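Memo to structure team: turn this sequence into structure tokens by end of day. - J.P.
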Amino acid sequence: MPRRLSGLVFVAGLAVCQATATAQTIDYSSLERSADKVEDSVISWRHDIHQNPELGNREFRTAAMVAEHLRALGFDEVRTDIAHTGVIGVLRGDLPGRTVALRADMDALPVEEKTGLSFASTVTTESEGKTVPVMHACGHDAHTAILMGVAEVLAGHRDQIHGTVLFVFQPAEEGAPQGEKGGAKLILEEGALDGAYRPDAIFGLHVWPGRAGSISVRPRGTMAAADRLRLSVIGEQTHGSRPWAGVDPIITAAQIMVGLQMIPARQLDVSVAPSVITIGAINGGVRSNIIPERVDMLGTIRTFDPEIREELIARVKQTATSIAESAGASVEMHVDPYAPSVYNDPDLTARITPQLQRAAGNYGFEERGLVMGSEDFAHYQTRFPGTFFFLGVNPEGVSAEEAAPNHSPYFLVNDEALKVGVKALSFVAVDYLKNTDLDEQ
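Reply from structure team:
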């Protein structure tokens, strides 16, 4: 080979190596600057969504807002009407690689807001035959706005993306209306994340009481499995002045409620895993002087261990039936599984921890304890490796113990934390794809 040609080949080869090295180096500073630039927009989106909340499977306005934003960013695909009102955006990077999914939930709760914010919700809507107030009392407005911000950041950095990022804006995390399917489970049942859209990993976050901007995560079991409990006590209607002439389902229901609390407190091995039974609603009767025929109770069961879950449900049935029969009443019981336990893949969690620490910076990072709350993000983790982490959002000067919890009418999100969420998901997505690309080499 002539010396001049050999030199050209060497230079060309060196250029290719340099280009490859450059492509494989993540410019976190550039991603961070982009996240800072989009901060004001993220806050504005969050306030807008907060002021206009929508219940599960009815997130029409929110979904339209998300889809319009993704199209404006030039996404390769924007798929709508997923699991009723969901949106999935497909962003392909300039470099070959695998697929990662990022998820945010969009639905609000039937809660009357009492925060006093200038953008507080005054929305009411019809739900299951009742007029109910609506509030983003669990922070899904923040989740949606953060992921919209991540979409804008990564759309401007396709040159750093090895593969494809799926942006999953999910409806009905809090549960679908009665008689409907919804949430993560329906997205999977519809096959929206199958075939070419199947992710190799999935990540999500949840805002939580804690120092604003701090991040916490736990490998393995993190959040409890949840089952919805419906108990109906059937008695015999009679006049309130003559209770002996019938069977009182109200007093029987009260005795059942007390009996249920004895199950996790005295009948299950708490050293294996914690569990909780809560009755959140009890309905029966229409007049002060009429003992009704029926009382309906709604509750939730929280567990971490599958065997304990089965034992607890069996003991609930035994306890409720025995107490009802002792009073001459009967019980109808239904258990509706909501979600399994959130399980963070330990290897994946260890892999992304440096990027979570990088995003949290001086705000703080820690490994968190078990959370009795549940999340239907767990359904994704039964199909794909995933990690779900927490973002602190307390107002300045308010401790985690003093802050209003999620689902409270006083729940507040500190806007300062939103940019940390944008950075965390951006760093995690780009780093995961880049490292899987290197693994394949």
